[in-house]
Amino acid sequence: MVVMNNNDKNKVATATILIHEQPDNKLLIRKSFRVREYDPDRDRPGVEDVERRCEVGPSGSVSLYTDLLGDPICRVRHSPAFLMLVAQMDDEEGEVVGLIRGCIKTVTCGQKLSRNPNSLNSAVPVYTKLAYILGLRVSPSHRRMGVGLKLVSRMEQWFRDTGAEYAYMATDKDNKPSVSLFTERCGYSKFRTPSILVQPVFAHRVKLPSRLMTIVKLGPVEADRLYRRHFSTTEFFPRDIDAVLRNPLSLGTFLAVPSRSEWTGIDRFLAEPAESWAVVSIWNCKEVFTLEGAPVAADSVGARAVQAVRGALFVWGGGSGADGVRMVRGLCGYAHNVAKEYGCGVVATEVASCEPLKRGIPHWERLSCAEDLWCVKRLGEDYSDGSLGDWTKSKPGNSIFVDPREI
């Protein structure tokens, strides 16, 4: 049983937990906890302790997981708006028993026909203010007491107060407690099932298909123009893509064009794109991801690369044309070589399950996740564009944009 009380004056949500009752309903233990904003000066040790206790170690196979120790807000600090909450026991010890992170941004939720007859694109994006819940953790000793539910509720209140229209979260589809909490108790619906693809970085460099393509590095302004021209109507595309490309963690954007083509600048390319092309941007996750696993056979390909190696690069992008898949594969090879220079253990990406270019992305199945689960919830009654209706009921497209700031 959980009795909740909101203290608006101090912006602290409190809850009382009835830990145990006798058969005659006489209370044996009564404890309460509060949900408040994370304070890095006093909460960091408690948060790190919860993270350690909630971390699932390797189970005999190789696994990729996030390592947030040292910077609890590293996965949200680059977002336009973010908040981290903790649940703390109201007793002398004041133990931190739970935490949650959230961020808000404006993204594409659909498209409509352009009313501008001079527009180069017949379709234009429809944007919505979207919130993202990530990093929900509850100490194993305090689960099934309403801590997770209270953390989610308080975070959603901040989302609404900030004007977010939708909220979503991502989890492993086999994580039954998480799926149950969000879909059965918090009103979320299963929405998208993207694939997480992970490729180890080998001891040798990958040979690039120079006869097929030439790789051109784009500056942030050039990359911004390219992404807005060709991908702005992609689901989850961030309206502040320029901020992503200018971020210090962005290692660059690389465009592949046919080797026989002469590069004359972004203006000419946007006006007359090559028959086949591909683009990839690289994001440095070296301090966030850790790759661990059980020892593998000595003759396994990349064996040395997958044993307790720290660091990853995340890539995103797209392409077009008959050779688009092959060019994407070549750009992934280029990203592999960049990762090798940076001392990273893997290159990772996340794509829609039906992404046409998915065939060109090299990955190990043992490291990858065929179906991640995204769940979504509508927070308000109004919509960004009334003609589109409720985004939660829309059909999935072939592609999605995965924001590297939230990896």
UniProtKB/TrEMBL annotation:
CDD domains: NAT_SF. It comes from the Eukaryota. InterPro entries: Acyl_CoA_acyltransferase, GNAT_dom, Plant_NAT. Coiled coil: none annotated. PROSITE patterns: GNAT. One of its GO terms (molecular function) is acyltransferase activity, transferring groups other than amino-acyl groups. The keyword Isomerase does not apply. Keywords: Acyltransferase, Transferase. Belongs to the acetyltransferase family. This is N-acetyltransferase domain-containing protein.
